[in-house]
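Thread: Newbie trying to understand structure tokens

Hi all, I'm a second-year student working on a class project, and my supervisor (Dr. K.) asked me to get a predicted structure for one chain before our next meeting. I've only ever worked with sequences, so writing a 3D structure as a token string is new to me. If someone could post the tokens and maybe explain what I'm looking at, I'd be very grateful. Here's the chain:
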Amino acid sequence: MKLGEKQVLTVVKTVDFGVYLGSETERVLLPKKQVPSGIEVGDPIEVFLYKDSSDRIIATTREPKLTLGKLAVLEVADTNRMGAFLDWGLEKDLFLPFRQQTAKVKKGDRCLCTLYIDKSERLCATMKVYHMLRTDSPYQKDDRVQGIIYDTSEEFGVFVAVDNCYSARIPKKDVIGTMKVGDVVEARVTAVKEDGKLDLSVRRKIPEQMEGDAEYILQSIRRRGGSLPFTDKSDPEQIKRELGMSKAAFKRAVGRLLKQGKIEIQASRIVEK
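---
Reply by user tm_fold:
Sure, no problem. This is what the structure looks like when written as tokens:
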């Protein structure tokens, strides 16, 4: 009998409260409310094995949203001082310990998880899924993809599971604004590494992006009463923090607006003409 997996077991005994599956030496209960009608001793049933609230192994015919060796995006049903509990389609929610969270989660959040068996032989969830992600994606440079953020790093950037299964990263230099664990992002593949992992960017190609950035800067000027306290000599970190773009992108967009005659650069600010 394999905890955390779907398997076909044989009915060995029927009782008032359900049926026992397995063999004479190893058996597990399938509660009465989940026993298909007409089942008799000797019949096979496909079930999933997990532990109930009393830590007893129990069978279910319900379809779990996650099994051992797989990945799934699950919703946080509740939290307590020990961790979080995820809705995985079974009566008992799945425990996600604090130490297995790549970012603190709250009720209603969605996170990419896999299953593991802890030291007490219980099924638990972990958000540390890097080792589970595949590197054989069908995507090529410039393809558009979608994925969920499963971890972040101040040094390396934002880690994304494309299609919830392929390993990808948005490098630190391409991170725009606030990107947090659980966010779903749409991005462009900028590189396919030798090991098969993907580099992504949420920015479009430069000509398309420049048009969008220029419009964003113009709207920012208008929101601030007609001027923006930046020039081409402004600090890159300040530009990224305030406008969510790199200094290079900022300069390209400003150059476009200058060429179009929409702005004027003064000593310490940019103003709309």
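A couple of things are worth pointing out once you decode it. The longest helix spans residues 206-223. Residues 128 and 214 are 39 Å apart (CA to CA). Feel free to ask follow-ups in this thread.
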